[in-house]
Amino acid sequence: MLNIQLNGELSISKLVIGCMRMNDWKLSTEQVVEFIEWCIERGITTFDHADIYGGDHRNESQFGEALKLKPSLRENIQIVTKCDICVPNAKHPEIKTRFFNTDQAYVLAQVNESLEKLQCGYIDILLIHMFDLLVDPRELGETLQQLKSEGKVKYFGLSNHSPLEFDTLQKYTDMRFVTHQFMLHPLGIQNYHNGTMTHCLKEGISPMIWSPLAGGRIFKPTNAVEENMKSVLETIRQELGLTHIDEVVYQWIFKHSSNPAIVLGTGNKERIERAIQSAENVRLTREQWYKVLIEAGYTLW
Ligand SMILES: NC(=O)c1ccc[n+]([C@@H]2O[C@H](COP(=O)([O-])OP(=O)(O)OC[C@H]3O[C@@H](n4cnc5c(N)ncnc54)[C@H](OP(=O)(O)O)[C@@H]3O)[C@@H](O)[C@H]2O)c1
């Protein structure tokens, strides 16, 4: 399984296990340990969390219980987590509506809470989950510096920011953001339209792509456009002699020169094995790649 070198010291696996749906997988702590070990054996070493994932924001805790049961796992994996989205939840009844918060006190408290839930001493990459329109970039830069100095977070990145938002926050910290995590799939190409993918090339950043299969909608079209995309993907699948259209989608994402990582949404081992095949062998032609882009609604001229 391939790795992506994000800077001189840090690499992540090209496939990342997304832990957003982990509570749906109904695994015992022993089974989470077994799953993490299974991933490591296949070279998938990076796990994507957020403070808010899972019912009652429990998914970091579920993962942390596995690390407690087998502490040696920690040194063989990279943990990504995120903060700044506030949503009403049982643990924080004082939150009554949805908003973003990058105030220093809030971010520091959230990172402490994530470390507690994950039962580990540091986070490899902390992402600011969404752009906070009330952000004070200077204060946020100082907050990130403090987290780095305290050894709580090794590296930082952003998620779901526009190129302008990314550049603005980058300007206020000497630490280079190591990645940008955002959505991309054949039913959602706004990050080609708005220049975010090209911004990754400009900055030399490998993005982390979330919801690569549109949350499963790729397989269950809900309208004529989605039906059409499914049949385009099926035609390409046949042309390439692949077993499933998920492989076409993964190859379509991997083909971009920014060397993206894909954050997988499945915990199904057979499906993960197919994703590994796709990461290791991108055979989609330039013409097939553009066919998907055009059918997704991109106008070339
Ligand atoms: N930064 C952000 O704002 C953000 C936002 C959303 C998500 N994320 C991250 O991205 C990760 C992935 O997102 P996602 O879960 O939406 O990814 P996704 O891969 O687009 O969707 C996963 C869903 O598709 C289903 N699926 C996968 N392969 C399938 C197949 N061959 N046939 C039928 N169904 C299939 C899965 O079901 P099975 O479980 O049954 O396989 C699951 O329900 C998350 O876990 C999270 O870590 C980040």
UniProtKB/TrEMBL annotation:
InterPro entries: AKR_Detox_Biosynth, NAD(P)_OxRdtase_dom_sf, NADP_OxRdtase_dom. It comes from the Bacteria. Residues 14-290 form the NADP-dependent oxidoreductase domain. This is Oxidoreductase.
